[in-house]
Specification:
By secondary structure, this protein is mainly β. The chain folds into two domains: 37 residues; 173 residues, Sandwich (Jelly Rolls). 12% of the residues lie in helices and 36% in strands. Strands 3, 6, 7, 8, 9, 10, 11, 12 and 13 form a nine-stranded antiparallel beta sheet that branches. A two-stranded antiparallel sheet has the order 1-2. Strands 4-5 form a two-stranded antiparallel sheet. It starts with a helix and ends in a 21-residue tail after the last strand.
């Protein structure tokens, strides 16, 4: 009887702790098979290939401009996914005058579908990492910016991760050949959506940070009124009011 009176409170405490831990795990990032953190825990796995989705039509626009930062060297022992120079899930605006780890955002314009990130960053030899920031813009004279489903197409020549409005949608290894393509469903939720790419090359990261990117309707066709830009339009509601997602590590 004395043993039961002493052990019962301890047993109840252990059961309560186990229940709280299980509840917290439902919103916690999960370790992947590589030991890295999956920032999409609790949802579909980030895309790493074409997913069987249709290719983009030739009239779907590629970004004519963007903002770049980086060229940081990645040590052999460091993980591309875990080493972060920016708030990858929280970035909502990129300022050309803001310095990050001795680097400054730089704007660019281009007339080529393949974005010449290697030439623009001039990063030097060895494993390197850079970020590309662009906005998907939608025009609607009625002002109705309800959710619109589409597909994000990213052709890449090196290691690549992609976030849209802070949610990790693509996590692709370097291609076996010169290029590989990721196609992932995306839902546009307002007049603009933030796209952030993390790109790597050198060593086992692949051969180049250059990419080619398009956004289309689910069938691969161009979406009327959709374009690419770099600055959030004035007077638009802040996307800081948008819902948060579980899993903030990347």
């Amino acid at each position: 009887m004395c043993f039961a009176r002493v052990r019962l409170p301890l047993l109840l405490g252990l059961l309560l702790y186990a229940g709280l831990s299980a509840g917290a795990a439902g919103c916690a990032p999960e370790a992947t098979s590589t030991g890295e953190i999956d920032a999409h825990a609790g949802g579909p796995a980030p895309a790493h290939d074409d997913g069987g989705l249709p290719p983009a039509s030739s009239d779907a626009l590629t970004p004519p401009k963007g903002l770049l930062i980086g060229g940081w060297k990645l040590a052999d022992s460091e993980s591309f996914a875990k080493r972060r120079w920016l708030d990858e899930e929280g970035l909502r605006e990129a300022f050309t005058k803001e310095r990050v780890h001795r680097r400054t955002w730089s704007g660019f314009t281009t007339e080529t579908a393949e974005l010449p990130i290697e030439r623009l960053l001039d990063a030097g030899a060895g494993p390197r990492v850079g970020y590309l920031y662009v906005l998907i813009m939608r025009e609607d004279k009625s002002g109705d910016f309800g959710p619109v489903d589409g597909t994000l197409h990213i052709k890449h020549g090196g290691r690549m991760r992609a976030w849209v409005d802070g949610r990790l949608l693509a996590d692709a290894p370097p291609p076996d050949g010169e290029w590989s393509e990721v196609r992932t469903p995306v839902t546009m939720t307002g007049p603009y959506d933030v796209v952030l790419l993390k790109l790597g090359r050198g060593g086992d990261l692949g051969r180049t940070m250059n990419v080619e990117m398009r956004v289309t309707a689910p069938d691969g066709s161009a979406i009327p009124g959709v374009s690419w830009y770099t600055m959030r339009p004035p007077g638009r509601p802040s996307d800081l009011d948008r819902p948060e997602w579980c899993g903030r590590e990347g």
